[in-house]
Design brief:
single chain; Rossmann fold; UDP-N-acetylmuramoyl-L-alanine:D-glutamate ligase; Protein-Tyrosine Phosphatase, Chain A; six-stranded mixed β-sheet; globular
Length: about 475
């Protein structure tokens, strides 16, 4: 089959493109700008065009794959739509590719990339094996895609944007969080939660839903009315499959972390399971919030049939995901961490982890807001969480798929901040400002193109 991907440089699109290419299909694509990810695809033999010109497209394409992140008025998309050949959304193709497999789908407004990557690592290091379509570059796999044709398991990141995750039919499903986001798609929080409930009920009847304790599909008052029994473990009347609960902040869930502690940059805890305790789980060089991700990853892996030995070894060797609490520089003078956090709750979790690992240190944060709509929706919450930093540097908004909204800019956040230690600068000015702020710990935050600055910042911090 000959596929053409419109928006091939997206993390989810590139994973499917790699999978199909590795399976012997002819794959090419279009993207607006070159990136390290498109460079990697080209190195693997996938042809990519960077000009919105249908004349440059291959003439023998049999099927088009597109992402909603690419505007419909793009000339390449318009040409594909008029060509008369099949055109399918990325999420629909992912649903087709995972049909008939034991699909483990990880959803959540945050936490899904780290959790799905961790599950994929645990299964791949065991006798069970798995294939995987991930939303980030795994440091263990050095890829966002894993192929194991001998295994029935396939791990996928289930994206709530544009209701994409409703194309899946998981054997096991995970929901890590349901916080307000993508209001440009859903309109209000109730519709977002309703979509997550629909996703939960797509889980196959012989499967299970792994749900973070406290996550609700309805508001708190209704939630209380819907719960049954004294120790309900988060089981909701609305969900049609068995629910397995997990947490790091209580002792009433099915799986929970206990006695969490840190030593020499590593985190240790005891994992309580329905069958007993697994003592001294070790996570290397990671964040505090990854403890929670590891609890549900361990729960899924154990339910799939991993042994305690395989679980311990897998978690201990897990190296993380690029741009997820990603340690870039560690010297006696400075630590530099890069993180994809782009929602107020994600930023809060990242900063909590940094304070936990580096108590009393001077923390400087650089944040690039992602999307005009998200900035407008959460300006106040962004200002509140960023004000807890010792110094805050804002970059202009990364628009991604959006057109500007009048009156919405990074200045909205800046004006709402209580701290006086705040700056709004261009990318060019940033390099001059960082040394003047004397960080003990520097953290870059955002889901836009702030990652392109990481090599420059590394060089800046490590040069004599």
């Amino acid at each position: 089959m000959n596929y053409f991907f419109i928006g091939i440089g997206g993390i989810g699109m590139s994973a499917i493109a790699r999978y199909l290419h590795q399976g012997g299909n002819k794959v090419s694509g279009y993207d607006l700008t070159p990136s390290p990810l498109t460079a990697a695809l080209e190195k693997e033999g996938i042809h990519i065009v960077y000009e919105d010109n249908p004349e440059l497209m291959p003439k023998d394409v049999e099927s088009f794959v597109y992402t909603p992140a690419v505007p419909r008025d793009t000339a390449v998309y318009q040409w594909a739509e008029k060509s008369g050949r099949p055109i399918v959304k990325r999420s629909q193709l992912l649903g087709q590719l995972t049909e008939g497999k034991k699909c483990i789908a990880v959803a959540g407004t945050h936490g899904k990339t780290s959790t799905s990557t961790m599950i994929a690592h645990l299964l791949s290091k065991s006798t069970l094996g798995c294939s995987a379509f991930l939303g980030g570059i795994s440091k263990n796999f050095q890829s966002n895609m894993v192929v194991d044709n001998k295994s029935d398991f396939v791990v996928v990141e289930a994206d709530e944007y544009d209701r994409s995750f409703l194309q899946l039919h998981p054997f096991l499903s995970v929901i890590t969080s349901i916080d307000p986001d993508h209001m440009d798609i859903y309109g209000d929080y109730d519709h977002l939660r309703e979509a997550f409930l629909q996703f939960a009920n797509l889980t196959k009847q012989d499967g299970k839903l792994f749900l973070k304790q406290g996550v609700a599909f309805v508001d708190d008052d209704e939630h209380e009315e819907h719960m049954q029994g004294e120790h309900h473990h988060g089981i909701h009347e609305e969900v049609s499959v068995p629910v397995v609960s997990y947490t790091t902040s209580g002792i009433e869930a099915d799986y929970y972390a206990w006695n969490v502690r840190t030593s020499r940059g590593n985190i240790y805890y005891d994992l309580r399971t329905p069958k007993g305790v697994i003592y001294d789980i070790e996570l290397r060089h990671t964040s505090l919030y990854n403890v929670e991700n590891s609890v549900v990853a361990a729960a899924v892996a154990l339910e799939c049939g991993l042994s305690e030995f395989e679980l311990r070894a897998g978690l201990k060797t897990y190296e993380g995901v690029c741009r997820r609490f990603d340690f870039r520089v560690e010297t006696k003078d400075v630590v530099y961490i890069d993180d994809y956090a782009h929602h107020p709750k994600e930023i809060a979790a990242t900063l909590d982890s940094i304070r936990y690992l580096y108590p009393g240190k001077r923390i400087v944060g650089v944040f690039q807001p992602h999307l005009y709509s998200r900035t407008a929706d959460f300006a106040e919450q962004f200002a509140e969480v960023l004000s807890t930093l010792d110094e805050v540097v804002l970059l202009p908004i990364y628009p991604a798929r959006e057109k500007p909204i009048p009156g919405v800019s990074s200045g909205m956040i800046l004006r709402k901040m209580e701290t006086l230690s705040k700056y709004l600068v261009s990318k060019e000015q940033l390099m001059e400002l960082i040394p003047a702020l004397y960080p003990d710990v520097l953290v870059t935050l955002g889901a836009g193109d702030i990652d392109r600055l990481v090599p420059q910042i590394e060089k800046l911090l490590t040069s004599e």
